[in-house]
């Protein structure tokens, strides 16, 4: 009975996500005030700096990086593409995978211009912003595939898509809490994606804190998690926390289409 309820909750979330349009999502989430590369106190420079630091500290290495729930976005792999020779992007929705494929194929028709993001990450790496064309080429070179995923399945990606040894690193931004109906599903999803990661591999997880809904066009009920719950879920799902950092949303970012109070960044290792 309890199992059926959990399945219904997950199915309801899946149905809501089917109605989300990538262009509306990008417009709502990756334009000011939520995303503003010009403001030092904005979330986006914080996120890009967290990822840059995590990928350049020296402990994250290997061949294969997998991004979980990529959506229609690429910023989350702009630092990692300099460390890993193989990057897989994943998403639940074909419309998002199509958006990513159109950037990868560089034939126009993308809803988003990622140039300012590429330039910003080049600056973090101590390069000239003009090096963004090289970074874009590098990204296109290392992205091996863009594949379907369902974090609620014990085997989230189809068998044989990823090398059997598992990924050396997973990155995932704003996916688990916005795809899970409750904390139990969030924790199970953390365990499910962990099966894609080799023991000793790293998880870089970014998510919202205290968010009960988000409306990128349609209203999505999300599971509000706090710092203690994230730490407990990680432990229960077989990860050792290296660090958790929190960004508290400034008043100007508390807009009507979400009710989060902050964002967490986690660096963890699979036991
Ligand atoms: N990572 C992107 C970003 O940073 O903007 C997208 C985050 S968006 C808030 C959440 C993503 O989770 C969406 O792209 C959605 O399609 C995906 N998603 C929804 N349900 C999912 C599921 N069951 N398994 C995997 N991904 C799912």
From TrEMBL:
Biological processes, Gene Ontology terms: methylation
Alphabetized PROSITE patterns for the sequence: SAM_MT_NNMT_PNMT_TEMT
Keyword annotations from UniProtKB, A to Z: Methyltransferase, S-adenosyl-L-methionine, Transferase
GO molecular function terms attached to this record: phenylethanolamine N-methyltransferase activity
Any GO CC annotation of this UniProt entry: cytosol
Cited Pfam families: NNMT_PNMT_TEMT
Keyword flag Membrane: no
Stored InterPro entries: NNMT_TEMT_trans, SAM-dependent_MTases_sf
PANTHER family assigned to the protein according to its UniProt record, in alphabetical order: NNMT/PNMT/TEMT FAMILY MEMBER, PHENYLETHANOLAMINE N-METHYLTRANSFERASE
Family: Belongs to the class I-like SAM-binding methyltransferase superfamily. NNMT/PNMT/TEMT family.
Name of the featured protein: Phenylethanolamine N-methyltransferase
